[in-house]
Each structure stands twice: as structure tokens, then as C-alpha cells.
Design a protein that fits this description.
heterodimer; A: 145 residues; alpha/beta; Rossmann fold; 39% helix; B: alpha+beta; Chemotaxis protein chec; two-stranded antiparallel sheet; 36% helix; ST_Response_Regulator (chain A); Chemotaxis protein CheY (chain A); Sig_transdc_resp-reg_receiver (chain A)
């Protein structure tokens, strides 16, 4: 028989975006779509993450990563973007900091792209459309690794 | 135009629309349009290049675009909009991007390789798109927020 203790109390649950020391995970969002940027922000901030930067193309993403380093815990990276695509930007970020936690978020789920991203050092790959559960699950897993 | 190229777009549109609008989507009768075709008011266009080349257009009226935007924003707890502004444009563009991305992934898994351009958005009344070289296949999708026409014009290289 289940006792009351088997059911987690929602009020006691630690927000996913907060580290053990009580400070939020700091996220850099790289995406050329205002819609997606807002959507990711909405999902992550509701769980206590802090968005510390937004970049609208790969080039800006790499620059912002370098500026913010070492105060970035996670990067969400789109793939199809003007100026510099997300796979190239991922490569440059990993070149600069091989410990970087980068999660690819793209409408494209092509196997070769997924493989290439993971080989280059991306921690995870999320295919759009985004739903809250999928995004949080994958991002939290990436931070644990 | 071979049906192998069309089906992935139709399937992707169906699955993405059902998911993001969280509503029933019905496919209308297919039809062909040639040369100049009128556009309903808001059209997101994505270019394709590779094994096949051409373009896919997601076409709807301004009213439908506003309804669809608000359905997508609302379902995520985001602020809805009164008029079709930059946020509306970004939302419809992203809708086109999600559908095309999923279609290209399906096509890729079937062995076709090509790339797509990021979507561009056109808005305006009485617009026409002309391309003498290729016929377009129109796939209407009916939703409670209005009709979205998927207009596919591709040819083999």
C-alpha cells in the first residue's frame, strides 16, 4: 500500500534550474527566431534557470560565450542560422572550452547532423516542436553529465 | 512532380499543426496551380536545393495567421497579440521552419538529400507568385483557426 510519503509534495520539489548551492544555472540562448528564444526563456525561467544572454546567430553566440565564460552553465544552440550555423558555432565553442555544455535545438532531425553534433561535443539534441517536458528533461540530463 | 517529395511535407504539416495547435487538423482536396498563383495574405516561403529544387509556401489569410499565432503563444503561456506584429511574423516563420525541418528529415531518411533556406515571410493583399517553369501542388489543411494551404513546387535536377 502506498503511504503519503510515496507522493512527492510539489511545494518541496527543488526547481530544476537551481543548483545545489541555491544559485540558478546560467543559460546562453543562441537562436535567430524571436519566437523560439521567447519559448525557451519561458520554459527555462519557469524552472528557475537564469537566461544571461541571447544571440541571434552562431558568430554572436561564440562571441557571447567567450565574453560570459566561465559564467555560463549551458548553451542552447539552433542549427539553421544566418552568418554562422549552429554546428560551426558548437565546434568553435568546444575548441575554446572543451567542458562547455551545449544542447542543440533544431527543427532538423537529420541523423548525420545529430551524429555530427554529438561527435563535436554537444551534450544533447532536441528536435522541434518543443514541449516543456522534453526540453527540461534533456537539459537537466545534460547538466548532470 | 513525384508524390514522394510531397508526402513528407503533408505528413510533417499534419503532425506539427496537430501538436502546436493542439487541435484536430483535416486535410482538404489536393489541387494543382500553375504559373501565377495568388497568395492569401501571409505566406512563409522556404527554398529547397539539392537532389530536388524548388520551394514550399505556407499560405494563409491574415486573420488565420493571427489566430494561429495566438493559439501557439497562448498554449505556452506566452502573451498573445492584437495585430500581426513582429512576434506574429516570428511565430508563423517558426511554424514553417518546424514543418519544413521535419519534412526534410523524413526525406533525408528516405535517401533524398537537400538543404533548405531559413523561411522568409511575405505579407500583403493581392499578391501573386509567378513561376512558369513548375506547377505547384496545393494541400489545404483545415483547422479551427482557419485554413493553411501548403503549396509545394519542386522539380528534380
Amino acid at each position: 500500500m502506498r503511504t503519503k510519503g510515496d507522493f512527492p509534495n510539489i511545494n518541496e520539489r527543488q526547481a530544476e534550474g537551481v543548483k545545489l548551492d541555491g544559485t540558478p544555472y546560467r543559460v546562453l540562448v543562441v537562436d535567430d527566431s524571436m519566437f523560439v528564444t521567447k519559448q525557451i526563456q519561458q520554459i527555462l525561467t519557469s524552472e528557475g534557470f537564469e537566461i544571461i544572454g541571447v544571440a541571434v546567430n552562431g558568430e554572436e553566440g561564440v562571441e557571447k560565450y567567450k565574453e560570459l565564460h566561465p559564467n555560463v552553465d549551458l548553451v542552447t544552440m539552433d542549427i539553421t542560422m544566418p552568418k554562422m550555423d549552429g554546428v560551426t558555432a558548437l565546434e568553435k565553442i568546444i575548441d575554446f572550452d572543451k567542458e562547455a555544455t551545449v544542447v542543440m535545438i533544431s527543427a532538423l532531425g537529420k541523423q548525420d547532423l545529430v551524429k555530427q553534433s554529438l561527435m563535436l561535443g554537444a551534450k544533447n539534441y532536441i528536435v522541434k516542436p518543443l514541449d516543456r517536458k522534453k526540453v527540461l528533461e534533456r537539459i537537466v540530463n545534460s547538466l548532470k553529465r | 512532380m513525384r508524390v514522394e517529395y510531397i508526402n513528407p511535407f503533408v505528413e510533417a504539416a499534419y503532425s506539427v499543426l496537430t501538436e502546436v495547435l493542439n487541435t484536430e487538423v483535416k486535410r482538404g482536396e489536393l489541387y494543382l496551380k500553375s504559373t501565377s498563383m495568388s497568395v492569401l495574405g501571409v505566406a512563409a516561403i522556404v527554398g529547397l536545393a539539392g537532389d530536388v529544387e524548388g520551394r514550399v509556401l505556407f499560405d494563409m489569410t491574415g486573420k488565420t495567421a493571427l489566430n494561429v499565432t495566438n493559439a501557439m503563444l497562448g498554449s505556452m503561456g506566452m502573451e498573445t497579440i492584437e495585430t500581426f506584429n513582429d512576434m506574429g511574423k516570428a511565430t508563423i516563420t517558426e511554424l514553417a521552419n518546424m514543418i519544413t525541418g521535419q519534412a526534410v528529415t523524413k526525406l533525408h531518411n528516405l535517401g533524398f538529400t537537400f538543404d533548405l533556406t531559413p523561411p522568409a515571410l511575405f505579407t500583403g493583399e493581392n499578391m501573386e507568385i509567378s513561376d512558369q517553369r513548375v506547377e505547384a501542388l496545393i494541400v489545404p489543411m483545415e483547422t479551427e483557426y482557419g485554413k493553411i494551404e501548403i503549396n509545394v513546387a519542386v522539380r528534380e535536377r
